[in-house]
Design the sequence.
């Protein structure tokens, strides 16, 4: 069994998609060992609790010092014997020490067609606001590896989503989220297959 740690900050519908993917048997050979939230009030923490998944809060509020926060994150990932880290609506930037320690084993879901509408300042609803303001006729969702840049790592999966007439940030975000859930589950499946193979080689 490979072990997944999911990093979250908010509602956690992407976390829920991975939980459902595992519970339905779509994702096999993996379990979520730990959920880490940067935000003590995130609904994601309730979702973890409902499914008996251990959770921790590690964020700016309880670890204001970046070095201590990074150490707490690495210790928690190591202690949970994490094979794969999923950033699922995680609204903080990971320190390069974490990227180094888990290189090739951290993935992120982003609500646009990277390289469009991504990078500094493009997160959550700001992405959809920018898409609507640009007049683009399509947007989408991307799952990619996390490297030292912001939304710059190699793309694993990407899928287009139409922008419809009369769309608001909320209607567009809801349509994109459905695609995020779908490609995140698929990407996790791909990652688990590839990581299991590598683990078997060791
Ligand atoms: C999702 O749309 C996710 O792609 C986005 O925040 C939302 C979280 O929803 N993440 C980012 O913008 C990170 N750059 P969720 O908490 O319901 O999964």
Sequence:
């Amino acid at each position: 069994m490979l072990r997944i740690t999911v990093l979250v900050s908010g509602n956690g519908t992407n976390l829920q998609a991975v939980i459902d993917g595992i519970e339905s048997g779509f994702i096999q050979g993996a379990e979520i060992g730990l959920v880490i939230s940067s935000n003590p009030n995130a609904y994601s923490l309730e979702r973890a609790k409902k499914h008996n998944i251990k959770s921790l809060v590690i964020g700016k509020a309880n670890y204001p010092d970046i070095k201590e926060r990074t150490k707490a994150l690495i210790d928690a990932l190591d202690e949970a014997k994490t094979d794969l880290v999923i950033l699922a609506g995680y609204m903080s930037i990971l320190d390069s020490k974490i990227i180094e320690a888990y290189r090739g084993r951290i993935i992120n879901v982003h609500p646009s067609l990277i390289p469009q509408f991504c990078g500094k300042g493009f997160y959550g609803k700001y992405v959809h606001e920018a898409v609507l303001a640009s007049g683009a006729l399509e947007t989408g969702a991307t799952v990619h590896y996390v490297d030292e840049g912001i939304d710059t790592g190699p793309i694993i999966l990407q899928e287009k989503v139409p922008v419809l007439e009369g769309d608001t940030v909320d209607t567009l975000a809801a349509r994109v989220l459905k695609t995020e859930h779908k490609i995140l589950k698929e990407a996790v499946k791909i990652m688990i297959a590839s990581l299991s193979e590598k683990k078997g080689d060791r």
